Amino acid sequence: MDGVGDVVEPRKRKRIEDIRVPAVKGLSDDLYRILHGSLVDLLRLRRSIESTDVALRSSAQAIAESRELLRRTRS
Fold first, then answer.
1. Among positive and negative, which fits the CA dihedral 64, 65, 67, 71?
2. DSSP notation for 1-24
3. Are 16 and 35 a contacting pair, CB within 8 Å?
4. Residue closest to 13 by CA, chosen among 31, 32, 36, 30
5. In this structure, is the dihedral angle defined by the CA atoms of residues 33, 34, 36 and 37, taken in order, positive or negative?
């Protein structure tokens, strides 16, 4: 993502089976749920970081544009 409004290809939703974890299918239901919950939390954290990165880039661009506008109005 390079900024707000970029066209982004839809991502395949991840499931615990999609991750390379040995013997996932042999785990008990409780352990499977714990691993799945952890994976979901990690993906949410990743999306949050990506969203924050986009917001920071957008803010930096707005700052640069504001400084340029201020520079032109002072000239």
1. positive
2. --STT---PPPPPP-GGGS--TTG
3. yes
4. 36
5. positive
Q: Which long-range contacts (CB under 8 A, 24 or more apart) does 50-59 make?
A: 50/1, 53/1, 54/1, 54/3, 54/4, 57/2, 57/3, 58/3, 58/4
Joined together, the tokens standing for residue 33 give 């749920």
The two tokens of residue 17 are: 């089976």
Is residue 3's pLDDT more than 80?
no
Residues in contact with 32: Cβ distance below 8 Å, sequence separation at least 6, in sequence order: 16, 24
- The pTM (predicted TM-score) of the whole model is 0.57
Does 40 have pLDDT greater than 80? yes
In three-state secondary structure terms, 40 is helix
Tell me which residue has tokens 């952890």: 38
